[in-house]
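Re: folding output
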Amino acid sequence: MRNRVIICEASEIIANGLAEIIDSMAQFDVVARLDNPEHVSEKILTTDANILIVNPTLLGFQSKDFLTQLEKEHDNLIIIALVASYLDHTMLAPYHGIIEINDTRAKVIGKMNEVAQNETSKKTDDVELSKREIDVLVAVAKGMMNKEIADMMNISIHTVISHRKNITRKTGIKSVSGLTVYAMLNNLIDENDLIH
């Protein structure tokens, strides 16, 4: 499966140069370029991106909170720092990888391939649903709508949709009835929980 990449970088020259390198690789598609992080979360949902390359200086002091929130909303998102100036290593700790402005084409390709391999090995191990995904699955199986689930869990509808996508990807089940059967077989709900 091809990896879908979003680049978030204020400099058009840097963003376009990086996009050109990434697009030249077989297993990657750059699906969006943003010059600020304001609409990153919605863009991840609408493009189904699994890799975000972002310049940490665009996130400012809220970078850690911003990254934590993104990872909460998008389970399997890989976030790579695009470093254009000196940054303290503690600022770079939350990222899954780092691309530096002076990296050669070969180095960027190597780093992207490494990220893709790590993601593939993670996916093969990762058939387990997270606690949040189980909560969403149970709510879906009980016949609740996205809005009701969002209100009950105090999360956005976007986050509910993201969890549902992850559940479908991990289980391979698309229909509500299929998910209900899955939830019953895994003792997450019983017949009494179902709306008749």
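--- second protein (sequence, then structure) ---
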Amino acid sequence: MKVSFNRWAETELISAARYLDAERRLGSAFLDEYAAWEKHVKQFPSAFPEIAPGIRCGYLARFKYHVTYTIRGDVIRILYVRSARQAPQRIWPQQ
């Protein structure tokens, strides 16, 4: 499996690492946890729950960040990386 980012997700990941590094010198630890999560999701892409049809949400427990993604063929597409303290981002139509 390959991983790709939408145009905002990679920026969100980098911004979170910079923020955590500036606040608590934890930017590298955050990126290490993300890398471990990504390795896991590559091996078990359906391991995390669907939050909408075709959209799954993983969680970086130590830092309390959500990683939302889709699976298309052999590509995991990261949609966004957000702190659990932030309001959820709407990526699908409301019903």
